[in-house]
């Protein structure tokens, strides 16, 4: 019969051997080094590309003001700037235009359209370029960012039957990031530079009062509203 000391010594040797085996597996096993830090989403990050959006506003030198169609184009461009623009909204005036009076009026109209759309005057930056008597357009521009989804590998590239490690697949999280890149309203928000607008204190007080009175806090729906469940994934 073995002594207690012998049994304890044997258990100790087995434990040391097991620990050494784990350390060896962690260093030389099937676990990639990048799996030891970060998460699946970190390994499938969304990239950002800076772009410059611009609009050429055409001015007819035989007219005294911008055409309605050009004003509508400016209004749509300003709305896009409000949605995803970074930095100032730049308006470039053509100097020595074929109709200088029209060029000056066009810039004034563009600034008025921007202001009425919620763009403050201090957010507008002016510049000028030489037209040399030509019928050059007025140019509006702003800086923006575009979200670039990660390049998801094909599922066929992986052996899902390989259970040599308990790690997630390299493709895990890539589809989530792809969907986020497609849905995000303003990719510049990924930089974390935009300040959060203050909450509506009055609206919050109304909701709190409804809650205290035991009334529904959600928006009421009319009898004309309908809804259905999507069958896109069936």
UniProtKB/TrEMBL annotation:
<dbReference type="InterPro" id="IPR013361">
    <property type="entry name" value="Pilus_CpaD"/>
</dbReference>
<dbReference type="Pfam" id="PF09476">
    <property type="entry name" value="Pilus_CpaD"/>
</dbReference>
<keyword id="KW-0449">Lipoprotein</keyword>
<feature type="signal peptide">
    <location>
        <begin position="1"/>
        <end position="20"/>
    </location>
</feature>
<feature type="compositionally biased region" description="Polar residues">
    <location>
        <begin position="225"/>
        <end position="234"/>
    </location>
</feature>
<feature type="region of interest" description="Disordered">
    <location>
        <begin position="212"/>
        <end position="234"/>
    </location>
</feature>
<keyword id="KW-0732">Signal</keyword>
<dbReference type="InterPro" id="IPR019027">
    <property type="entry name" value="Pilus_biogenesis_CpaD-related"/>
</dbReference>
<protein>
    <submittedName>
        <fullName>Pilus biogenesis lipoprotein CpaD</fullName>
    </submittedName>
</protein>
